[in-house]
Amino acid sequence: MRTRVQAAAAGLAVILALTACGTSPGEDSGNDGSKTSNTADISEGVQPDEAAVKLLPQSYKDKGEITVAMDLHYPPTTFLADDNSTPIGLNPDMARLIAKKLGLKLKFENTAFDTIIPGIDGGRYDFTATTMSPTAERLQVLDMIDYFNGGLSLAVSAGNPLNISNDDMCGRNIAVTKGSNAQLKHLPNVSNWTCTEKGKPAINGVTLPNVQEALTQLHSKRVDGVLYDSASLVWAADQQPNTFTILTPQVDTRSDHVVAVALKKGSPLTPALQAAVQSVLDSPEYKKSLETWGLEAGAITEAKLN
Question: Exposure winner among 47, 152, 251, 260, fewest CB in 10 A?
Answer without folding.
Answer: 47
